[in-house]
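User: Modeling request: complex.
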Amino acid sequence: MAAKKSGKKRMGGFWVNGGLIIICLLWTIPTLGLLISSFRDRVDINRTGWWTVLPHQDWVASEQIKPEPDVDRNQPMTLAGVTATFEEFRQGIEQDGKRLIWIGNRRVGYLEVQEQKITANTNFTLENYKQVLASDDYTATLSDGTTVTERGDNMGRTFLNSLAVAIPATIIPIFLAAMAAYGFAWMRFPARKMSFALVIALLAVPLQIALVPLLRDYVALGINGTFLAVWVAHTGFGLPLATYLLYNYISGLPRDILESSFIDGASHFTIFMKHILPLSVPALAAFAIFQFLWVWNDYLVALIFIGASPTNQVLTQRLAEIVGSRGQDWHLLTAGAFVTMLLPLAVFFGLQRFFVRGLLAGSVKG
Amino acid sequence: MATTLPRSLPPDVVRENGGPARIFMALVPLLAALALLVGGFILLRDLQTQETGTVSPLITAALAILWGVGGIILLFVTAYHFVERLPMPWPARLEPWVFVGPALFMLIWALFLPALRTIVLSLQDADSVNFVGLQNYTGVLSDPGMLTVFRNNLLWMLIGTTFTVSFGLLVAVLADRSRFETLAKALIFLPMAISFVGAGVIWNFVYAVKPSDAAQIGLLNSVVVSLGGQPQAWTAFFQPWNNFFLIAIVIWLQTGYSMVLFSAAIKGIPSEMLEAARVDGANEVQIFFSIMIPYIMGTIVTVATTIVIFTLKIFDVVIVMTGGQYGTSVIATEFYRQYFTYNNNGYGSAIATILLIAVMPVMAYNLRRFAQQEVF
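Assistant: Request completed. Predicted assembly structure:
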């Protein structure tokens, strides 16, 4: 019986692990392709797939033949024992396992003799990152030695803007929510039930419904286009979930700790600051990660309240702009996208456990 | 004397409260804290609106944290101090509002009132001057373009939710029996950290298309060409299937979320229950469908509801991938277009209100469950 069971488990193990590996590959390869491409030369990105950085069979140059300058390139030429026109050479001529192909233009180009070999395009560079981070004109050096000067995408500054938006928009709502959660969990007052019902009702409200009236208030207050506008918006939009999650946590803390503090004469204020906040660190951290990732990755709120102001733009806006205006410049898009993902991925890998805990508390409990 | 006092009031408070002079003395720091908050607000606003560009965003952020967190703590402390010194019934009455007041104020200002105001706007004309009754709604609902929009949202909700839930469930069950559970779950979960705009770029690159005589740099077209097919512009002219290629992105992003919840739920199934079924000769498929699924039904409903709401509000992915063109527009992108491209406040608000109405059942469900809780 036992042997049969373990045998069955091993069989299951093969299918289970095989299936899981396939799904994991499907889920990882798109990001991996982006990461690899962001380090590739801009010309290479547009000419070959990113997977050619892996060893594969391809035509590799073995010899270069420069025709004499006086050869008439408008007539059939005889090079490497083959007579053909320029157009035919440019198409490539295959014979004896070799390929003759014209590289460059008619006047100063040359003929390349290529052979099938195992090769890998490992021509990596940091140029793409330098260009997206640069604030002024950036001169990129291409793999063939030529240089191109283009406007940098100023993502260095934009990265700082994103930090300036995300950090206050994470800390402020958490503190407000912790206070409110304590009030709802440990104090009794009229309208308590109604107020908390408001929090619950607003949990599912789509934020689109609030955008335009809030925008009008911002214009009246003169803060449209500033970080303040985004902080206030994210604080308001994040509060229902934050209050709800922290209420669940704080109301579950052992009551006797607090009752003994009351008997010792501690005020609500002391209890909140000295006992509740330290005890709630796991829940606070879980929500902090949640809110930070949400604000950092947000596009809609920034788009509406920061808008076109180039000095205050955040990363998602900048990246979306590059998508819109230079959607085929894959060297910029890949590097730019990775710049926006850098911090969330670091947070994610460093604090995954807290993040998962936050997700679970938000959905399974309650 | 002390025994008649409410328990929540510590003795020192009782000694100090009362007396107009004391109340006035306590009012000063409270007003100072308020003034500091307002002053900080104006300072931060002016730092940003003056187009000097010299103030580093990090300094602004540091100031903001100081202002926001410090200001709130200061307001909290001074308000509490003030309330404690009021004559007798008032401290106990007002104390709770010191705790819940600031959060409620923000909620009402940033969410509750705007929602009501949007509903009013939806009953007015494009410039929000005259009331036009339900004209915006009839206009929106009879617009043939909106039919595609609603169809697309329905597709998003059906396909997106079905696949996110199934994949999440599949991965959770597989990972539970695998040797590299932690690694697999981290890899599937990873896209959760990526923004929609970033995910848009990742998948634009997967879907990238080159002329059929050039080498394909997009993974999908490269596979299609190597199988003998023709390269396609998957998200553009491949209608109406292009919607599915957009939905795939959100499935990719959200499967991690559903997996995490399902994984926790599956681990909560008592192992005796599964053992008993195995002893009775049930195979793994039977166990999955007749024990696991019913046991975690609550979680499945939660996850499905979350994803439905999520796909109902979907915006970023569509805006970044297609801008809502090629028949991929959804409610949220249409809302944005009406407001900010056509400046039609009436239509825009009506669309936002339709979105609100669509989530009403979920709000009602949440409230009903809340009302049933004994704690309150």
